[in-house]
Amino acid sequence: MFCPSCNAPNREDAKFCKSCGQPLRAEQARAPEQAGSVAEPEQSVSSAPAEEREPATASPATVEPQQSATEDSGEEEDLSLAPTLILSPEKVMAYRSRFWRQNEAEIRRASQAGETTGQNTSAHPADMPTVIMPSGSSLPASNVPEASEGQPAPLTPGDNEQKQTAGEPQESEQKQEKQPSFDSAPAPALEQKEVSGSMTDQSVSGEEPPQDGEKPQAEEGNFAPLSVGDTLIGRYEITQVLEAGPNEHIYQAVDHQGYQHCWNCGSEQNAEGDEFCNDCGAGMLNVIYILHEYPASGSAAKEANVLQGAIVNTFMDRGRTYAVEQPSLIQNAFPNGVQLLAASDSDAGDVRRSEPNEDSTLILQLQRIHESRSTPVGIFIVADGMGGHDKGQVASRMAVNIIAERMTRELLSNPLQAEKEGKTVEPLDEDDLVGLLRNTIEEANLALCQQNQRDKTDMGSTLTGYMIVGEHAYIVNVGDSRTYMVREGQIYQLTTDHSLVGQLVAGGLIEPDDVYTHPQRSQIFRSLGDKPNVQIDIFKQQLLPGDIMLSCCDGLWEMVRNPQIESILNSAPDPQTACTQLIEAANANGGEDNISAVVVYVR
Fold first, then answer.
1. Which domain holds residue 573?
2. Are both 251 and 374 inside the same structural domain?
């Protein structure tokens, strides 16, 4: 599958492009009829001036990432007999817990007698696939995800091989002595106990002399911290020494193989070289983690602090034990829920001041706070009526009115009425919310098509925006209006322009800056009201505190380049001021079209 934005090759089942992070169309059913839309753009669109924008006849591939299906066979399997060498952490935990429940008594007897049971050696948890894939492993490529920058790796048998090279004894009685019991521990504590257990196992290796060719383990009295720039197992680069103590060193580290385990959705289906997760679109380059370092000495390891965060990887290197912790900011970014500050504004523009403003905007925000936690639901839309057609302002107004009416009914009126009648109201899950958003926009499109058929008109509207539910935004786009996000001061364009120049840029035929001056920049491939089966881009974006969301029409982004938009959003004290300053900048730079913006600050 080739990305419609950057033309990079991707897996056939990828939902997001590995190179640019833009959503990909999962369905390929309509691909044949869409072929050639980039190679032969002149046959697909008609030339028109900027103020008489009209939809083109061809449609590029749509972006409709599908929800990943969960694999749940409902049967308990013996993982030691499974042909694959890749196990999820959940399966590893389930297997180890079952193993210890079944064999604890036998292991205890063998340990007391100083003997080795032997019969369960091949199924011992210490010999199970672990989460670490050390460099140089000889496992077949078909069995292991390829390495990538920035993310934790799946567990593989290579971990045991690395422990052996570090000098760990292979006698089963020592392993049985040191293994923790998982019988009565709650699920969240299993990860912590596993880390602690692995440290204890590794501490035994300090008592054995190193074998030929092995690196000597660090002595307890020579537990010096690493230096900035050091890289462990060819993957984790030390970027900052946070704390250095007698029994533990804490570093900030960058993971250069983030593709192995997506920090956002946990996907392990990415490959080396992927810059964005194929399943959720999260950036995977140089993700920052907290790295805990422990000496191999048993006494020092026992005195180390118990880790409370999410441990995503453990390994041994240079005779020391390491635990990789995902920062709590990513795990629990909104401890008291999400707070949204929203505003919108619209202006006819200096050039078209005497004509009707054909843009419409919508802010529909619902917020409840239960048990001191805020969970908002918000709909934020910009609709740009098609200039040069009959009743462009009517088209944009119809679109936002239908969306507002449907969303208010489904998200507010119906649940409140059900509560009033004493019925149990189940919250909508993600599939229901995405389906509701898609159906609502399709309903607006159908209404415009029917109106055009009755009145013999060809009015239409582009539409962009997002639905925010809790900590996630569901981005929607039809046409050449845009949605941006500013995170940590940097601007990102989240949507793809469904326009001729957008396809020319994706095909490498023109430079990105040419979209502002190309004579056919107003020719678009998709719009509401053009045809009943309009293709709609919908994809999911994780939110973090401090994010700024902007949806705007082409009358804004064509007049105000991305660096200036970024500067205004970063400096404005509130969303309403940001909207006002964006419109003023667009008019100052020419004001050739209607200008509309919706801005949301995430707190």
1. 31-66+339-589+596-602
2. no
Helices 575-588 & 562-571 angle (0-180, nearest 10):
150
Question: Quick one: tokens of 534?
Answer: 């309009």
How far is Cα 488 from Cα 355, in angstroms, rounded to an integer? 39
d(CA 333, CA 437): 25
Q: Taking Cα atoms as reference points, which of 441, 343, 367 lies closest to residue 400?
A: 441
Q: What is the pLDDT of residue 273?
A: 84
Confidence of residue 389 (pLDDT cuts 50, 70, 90): low
The secondary structure of 161-218 as a DSSP string is HHHHHTT----HHHHHHHPPP-SS--HHHHHHHHHHHHHHHHHHHTTSPPPTTPPPPP
For residue 478, what pLDDT is reported?
A: 97
Residue 111 has pLDDT above 60, yes or no: no
End-to-end CA, the chain: 37
What's the number of domains the chain is made of? 2
pLDDT of residue 110: 57
CA atoms within 13 A on the CB side of 131: 26
CATH number of 470's domain: 3.60.40.10
Name the domain boundary from 278, 302, 331.
331
Higher pLDDT among residues 341 and 30, named by residue:
341
What average pLDDT does range 259-267 have in this prediction? Answer: 81
More confident residue, 8 or 112: 8
Is the per-residue pLDDT at 572 higher than 90? yes
CB 377 within 8 A of CB 386: no
CB 14 within 8 A of CB 276: no
Indicate whether 292 and 399 sit together in one domain: no
Give the CA count within 13 Å in the CB-facing half-sphere of 6. 14
* Per-residue CA distances from 42 to 273, 515, 526, 535 (Å): 35, 16, 16, 21
Across the chain, mean pLDDT equals 74
pTM exceeds 0.70:
no
Question: Which bin fits 347, alpha (ψ -120 to 50), beta or left (φ > 0)?
Answer: beta
CA triplet 3, 34, 48: central angle to 5 degrees? 100
Q: Is the pLDDT of residue 211 over 90?
A: no
Contacts for 193 with CB less than 8 Å, ≥ 6 apart: 180, 182, 185
Angle among Cα 141, 146, 147 to the nearest 5 degrees reads 135
Distances (CA, A) of 480 to 170, 500, 512, 556: 63, 10, 14, 11
d(CA 414, CA 420): 10
Q: What pLDDT, on a 0 to 100 scale, did the predictor assign at position 308?
A: 57
Contact by Cβ (8 Å): 438, 407: no
Say if residue 453's pLDDT is above 50.
yes
> Which of 348, 344, 345, 346 minimizes the C-alpha distance to 51?
348
Q: 404 and 307 in one domain?
A: no
Q: Can you tell me the distance from the alpha carbon of 187 to that of 90, in angstroms, rounded to the nearest whole number?
A: 9
Domain-embedded: residue 73: no
Kindly report, residue by residue over 123-140, the tens digit of the pLDDT: 444 444 433 333 333 333
Report residue 540: phi and psi, to 5°: -105, 140
Q: According to DSSP H, which parts of 307-378 are helical?
A: 328-331
The pLDDT value given to residue 81? 52
Higher pLDDT, 109 or 401: 401
